[in-house]
Amino acid sequence: MKRSRSIFAAVAVAGLAAVAGAGCSSGGTSTGGPVTLHEWLWDPTQLSSYQACAQAFHAKTGITVDISQSGWSDYWNNLTTQLAAGKGPDVITDHVGYYPQLVSSGELVDLSPYFKKDGYNPAASGIPTNSLWTRNGKIYGISQDRDAVALLYNTKDTAAASVQSLTWNPTDGGTFGALIRHLTVDKNGVRGDQPGFSKADVKTYGFAMESGDGIAGQSSWATFALDLGWYWTTPQTPFATSYDMSDPRLGSVFSWLQKEYNAGYIAPEAQVSSLGITPVMDHNVAATTFQGAWTISSYAPSADKNQTYAWAQLPVGPGGRSMTISNSLAQSVLTVSPHPAQAAKWVEFVGSAACQNLVAAKAVVFPSIPSEAAKVLSVDQRKGINVSPFTTELGNTSDLVFWPITSNGTQINNLATTAIDDTLTRGQGNPTTVLGNLNSSINALFK
User: Fold this and answer.
1) What angle do CA 218, 221, 226 make, to 5 degrees?
2) N or C terminus of the chain with fewer C-beta within 10 Å?
3) Could you give the angle at the alpha carbon of 211 between the alpha carbons of 14 and 168, nearest 5°?
4) Are 350 and 334 in contact (CB under 8 A)?
5) Which DSSP string do the residues of 177-230 spell out, in sequence order?
């Protein structure tokens, strides 16, 4: 859950949840007095949710949790710097794209002994069991939420009926391809599927893709490739050591996308990267995009929005399925923490119904516990937001895949971002050739 490219531009301000509360149990003290845990978080939209959890945790245990929030890029850069100096917070909000490196460098605490001592079983709380945060029998986190991706559209540009039951294929784009051509309008009012359309003078593009979406392509191209039966690695399991970026199926996706960019139906990468995907939509630079569940609040009705939005299901691929990545974040404890036992209790609490109910009430993300996630639908409905496309996807587990979790995540993401952005959005190079070179570069990292 990268939480989208827009988070790269999040304001890097620190927000503290210095929590006060009554009652201090033995779990909240050490020989040095009451324990304060320091946690880092990058997503500003989730800060209040976990502040509420921290208050409840303090009331229960006497342990204080200070939560500092900063933007995505600053978050990981600062963490790298701190760890290199032998410093860091007690707990981090962790991402599957980064935690393999932290595990390899010995920076994360194995939580399983603490869970065993405390009698904590994630499955007993209703959290679906998976191998995302487990390696070689060691546990480095518990899935605290789940996400999916849906089609976001501007209701001023298209009616709900036009975005229902869309199909896609790499030959002609299916009904999705026809939709984005029709929604593209030049400054003379000529649509992309009409004679006289000028791709050099577009007012509104039919579609915009997240810029810098990296190796996962979660909010951009991944759903198309997954619909064709492709996956990043062989085998399709965490910590695989062989990528399949040269697969012809992926090449066909990128060839189609490159053609749509060149025809003027997809917003240029330069505009998206300079503005950010949310301003692109808010200024009606594009009529549709793919966005994750973590952005729901960013597109909610408000007085300062010039546009109104709604959500729809992703296009269905040639095989009759609409595939997407379902990712999760977790709380991980750093080995630099002087309070690993107390930090493990915080991880347990975040994975409990007590915390997840508070998260569901904020309706910013979908908690991991299904019964709590279901509450988000009704909360958003009261706000006038229909998030059923997300709940439908999360309910169709056969259409969900895990984020590609491997070692060398930073290097791979850097290689992929450059190659993919250049190929797709700038039309530089044949996709088959570029993807083949990318695949060779990535796989060389595992040798």
Assistant:
1) 80
2) C
3) 130
4) no
5) HHHHHHH-EETTS-BTTSTT--TTSEEEBSBB--TT-TTT-TTTTHHHHHHTT-
In the chain, which residues have pLDDT < 70?
1-33, 129-130, 303, 425-427
DSSP state of 128: P
What are the angstrom distances between the C-alpha of 342 and each of 19, 144, 334, 435, 440? 15, 18, 12, 46, 44
Q: Is the dihedral of CA 417, 418, 423, 424 positive or negative?
A: positive
Residue 14: its pLDDT value, please? 31
Question: What residue ranges do the domains of the chain occupy?
Answer: 5-144+329-394, 149-325+408-444
- Kind plus residue range of the DSSP H or E element containing 64: strand 64-69
Q: Is the dihedral of CA 246, 96, 412, 326 positive or negative?
A: positive
How do residues 391-404 score in pLDDT, each as one tens digit?
Answer: 999 989 899 998 99
The SS3 assignment for 398 reads helix
Q: At what angle do helices 370-382 and 353-362 cross, to 10 degrees?
A: 20
Cβ(202)–Cβ(264) below 8 Å: yes
- Helix, strand, or coil (residue 366): strand
pLDDT given for residue 32 in this prediction: 58
Q: Do domains 5-144+329-394 and 149-325+408-444 have the same CATH topology?
A: yes
Q: What is the pLDDT of residue 304?
A: 75
Contacts of 408 (CB under 8 A, 6+ apart): 101, 442, 445, 446
Question: Considering just the CA atoms, what is the radius of gyration of the chain in Å?
Answer: 22
Tokens linked to 298: 């960013």
Give the number of other CB atoms < 10 A from CB of residue 195.
Answer: 6
The structure tokens listed for 209 are: 């893709």
Q: Are 127 and 78 in contact (CB under 8 A)?
A: no
- Tell the CATH superfamily of the 149-325+408-444 domain: Periplasmic binding protein-like II (3.40.190.10)
Query: Two tokens at 321?
Result: 């399925």
Give the C-alpha separation, 404 to 414, whole Å. Answer: 15
Beta strands in 89-148 (DSSP E): 91-95, 134-135, 138-139, 145-146
In this prediction, residue 424 carries a pLDDT of 75
Tokens of 193: 């599927």
